UniProtKB/TrEMBL annotation:
Transmembrane portions of the chain: 21-42, 54-71, 83-104, 134-150, 157-176, 188-209, 221-239, 271-292, 304-327, 333-354
Source species, domain of life: Bacteria
Species the sequence originates in: Paludisphaera borealis
Family matches, as InterPro entries: Acyl_transf_3_dom
Domain Acyltransferase, chain residue ranges per copy: 13-351
GO MF, any single term: acyltransferase activity, transferring groups other than amino-acyl groups
UniProt name for this protein: Acyltransferase 3 domain-containing protein
Record has Ribosomal protein as a keyword: no
Taxonomic lineage: Bacteria, Pseudomonadati, Planctomycetota, Planctomycetia, Isosphaerales
UniProt keyword list: Membrane, Transmembrane, Transmembrane helix
Amino acid sequence: MSAEPSFAKSRIASLDQFRGYTVAGMILVNFIGGNQVVHHLLKHHNTYCSYADTIMPQFFFAVGFAFRLTYLRRLQTVGRAEAQRAVAARALGLILLGFVMYHLDGEYKTWEELKQLGFQGFLANAFRRELCQTLVQIALTSIWILPVIAASARVRVVYLVVSAALHLGLSWWFYLDYAWKTPVIDGGWLGILSWAIPTLVGTLAYDAVAARDDHERGRAVPSLLVWSVVLMAVGYGLSCLGGELAAPPFSPPAAGRQVDLWTMSQRTGSVSYLTFSAGFSLAVYALFVLLCDQWGVTVGLFRTFGTNALAAYVIHPMVSLAVRPYLPDDAPLWYVIAGFLVYFGICYLLIRYLEKNKLYLKL
């Protein structure tokens, strides 16, 4: 563990802009992904990595970046015990919010059905799938990496590799079969092991940026890009270990190719997918470091979404419920674009209103 880990003393513009871009991407792909006319790269897939599938790992990358920043700051201001208490409280808050948004599995319309379920049946059935989505995954992954969040880069890299190896081992043993048969969402309960990959990469990116003064952060870009290429190459290389050369990322697999331990899959939270996506996140973030921290370029839209990302996450599905019923899956492209602009505009106006009134949803 580093003796005196450093933290950035000023707000890092590139993080807010990167997070805002990621929120905008989420709003885009979550709304239009169900339409037949939309390009396959803008849809979520379970058998390869599309553009849509890179969005969630970018959230975890940003979470890791901000987690290390805030944790190091709290270590120096309030001490370890209080810093850890804040992490636990935040995780609990995210889990409770996730419970409200995602709900538990199952629905019981009569008292007799509920009695027949019993307590053991409740434990066996209620937590299999729906609850373990983005917010809950973020909470659990944060707890998982808490032991090393203030540690040296070497320790965090070792922890990342061990987490990935555990996920691979458990998937080989039983979890891959379970994940596909259930089917789980976003990796399910063991997803914390692989979602730790982009999260810990985010902590390493923070180190590269925070080690430099505000006007020198652009010097971190070359190393960020080099490591992004390394991670993407490793992720793709892992996807080829199934016995034949895998299709390149962002390309559908060959017809008849079977899903295996090495397939890039957001459903299973596979190690190949999250290693590649961590590298992709690093490349995208490097671009924002160059634009925002080095050249001073910022986009108001990304600022609005990036500084109130949790509010945007909570609000956008409610807006979708209001607009989506009037957007059939087989609608023509012009109508899909028009519907999206209405939906996106409402989301932006609501989040912008919160920003103008200095109302921020944070946990």
